[in-house]
Amino acid sequence: MTYRFDFSSVLAQWPLFMHGAWLTIKLSLLATLLGLLIGTLCAIGRGSRNTVIANACATYVEAIRNTPLLVQIFLVYFGLASIGLKVPAFVAALAAMVINVGAYTTEIMRAGIESIHRSQIEAAECLALSRVQIYWHVILRPAMERVYPALTSQFVLLMLATSITSQISAEELTAIANRVQSDTFRSFETYAVVAVFYVLLSLMMRGLFWAAGQALFTRRRKLGTPL
Amino acid sequence: MSGGFNANHLQFLLQGAGWTLLLSVIAFAGGGLVGFVVALCRISPLKPLRWASLGYVQLVQGTPLLILMFLAYFGLSILGFSLPALVAAGISMTIYVSAYIGEIWRGCIQAVPRTQWEAAECLALSRVQRMALVVLPQALRIATPPTVGFMVQIVKNTSLASVVGFIELARAGQVVNNSLFEPFLVYMLVAGLYFLLCFPLSWWSRKLERRLVVAPRLEAAA
Amino acid sequence: MTTPVVQLDNVHKSFGALKVLDGVSFEVGKGEVTAIIGRSGSGKSTALRCIDRLEKIDQGRITVCGHQVSEPGLDLRQLRRDVGIVFQSYNLFPHLTAAENIALAPRHAKGRTRAEAREITERVLAQVGLSDKAACYPEQLSGGQQQRVAIARSLAMEPQVMLFDEVTSALDPQLTGEVLKVMADLAAGGMTMVLVTHEMAFARNVADTTIYMHGGRVWEQGGREMFDSPQTAELQQFLGNGL
Questions:
Q1: Considering the domain A8-223, what is its CATH architecture?
Q2: What ipTM was estimated for this complex?
Q3: pTM of this prediction?
Q4: Which of B54, B67, B71, B188 should one mutate to test binding to chain A, selecting the residue with the greatest count of A CBs within 10 A?
Q5: Taking burial as the number of CB atoms within 10 A of a residue's CB, which of B98, B160, C126, C132 is the most buried?
Q6: Structural domain spans, chain A
Q7: Inter-residue contact C100 to A147 (CB < 8 Å)
């Protein structure tokens, strides 16, 4: 083997990688929050008695879950541009990611919502709580606690999937890796270093989610048992 | 604007879909084999095996598939191989699948009730016999729905092989679009083809899951 | 003649082909305690649930605290502010402490301030004898304690009538006593109560009126004397089994 590994030229670019990691975090957190909102609304819509809304949500979920993110990103970025809506790469990337993670979040929230027994809702109705109050206090809060591990796994996967947005030149860690490897000609080393960055990012994200879970779910923190 | 979408373009896309299927099968076969080993190592009584496999899984699950593709592609050329993109894609997908399916299967093996392990032990079966004759057959049943569900992920993730130049369905779409400049039409068609490949698997996985929940109850009632 | 708090008038209800309530009529006056007894399937729980509009009736009229429960124009939330119901399986919210379970509805359905809700919570917890369990989660409490918290939760809404749907049936025998004591205290305090129960001694000693239901109808109705000298063969057989 005549190739000699040279990590130094790649590691010298670490400020650039840090910047890329920061961009990845920004994109991921934004997509997470918006995706959670959409996923929750859609999960409620899926259970609606109005068949039009229920079917629309189900169709959305099936369409997204059975097509690749890469194609969805192309559709949003290139497809919209071709019908006159030219959006910057970051916006297109964010939109595609939100639409994508929204569908997966819908399924997770749906499972959580359906795990709430009918008797809980009945008790809440008999306490004169309004529909919205019941949804928030009796359905969504415990549902979210129950599916929190599944949700956080989904959002870590989301962070890893942001690498795909590099294909439309959105600014994040993989796009920066592409630039660095073409400048230094050290492709393997560049991607190896970036892989380590991603592993550290996913560990960090999981730690962050764990801490958030401890803070949000008092019952879990005090009793340590699953709901 | 060049000529409209014609049968040649459709044929090109369908060929791409064919390569998508091939890569998916390779990924599932290779990843399944390695994943099985990973699953067994994860529950091995030997600590080094447990730690090594855990490390492997954490590493692979913490890296985007796109980066794995690049690593395989450039790693192979460093090692002196000038192999087609299919090989690089196949290797990275195998590694990717092995980590995820390994974890799925580990969970399914551990989902077999402890009492089954104990019963087998009390029948003086060795560890290998216990696994092969009692635990794995039951784990297989539990594992079928999530495995079929994961096959959908495999098919979708083959789209990333496009970045190493492998002409599967997504890449074929890019090529067609570069000559037609009709991204909306082309990518909707590509999405439609992926849907046709994936939806039957998704549907089947859900059906299996329902049967898995109902069947034990029926067996218990009988 | 004061208007009754609860009035059922020729109520009919079917679940599909099964006729569950076949012309049920009875009244409960203010401060009265009415017990409903009968076999499983006699329709007693259904009758109770119809009072709080948990089930809709097919025919007849139900009036509760001035609300026409059977009419379409009913303000459901206002009805539920006036009626408290306690269930067999307590139905406490598992992700909230006892105090949070109790304070939830007064705060959000009655608009009480945080201070008012806290004061109400302390009062009703003391009433059911669980002041020291305010910060406990339901899974940390015994069945009897959970049921008492459930009673406190309904009491916190300051209802005009309390309904009890076989509230001791899911409890171990040694835990039913503490719940029955709370209910007896409530009755002594003048609360209007309707309870479906299998506790014959409680019905005989605490209730002003006991209704025996059979086959979806009110078979017999009376005070303590009904237990001592049942008029119909069905009630004789039922009590012979029970006591």
A1: Orthogonal Bundle (1.10)
A2: 0.89
A3: 0.87
A4: B67
A5: B160
A6: 8-223
A7: no
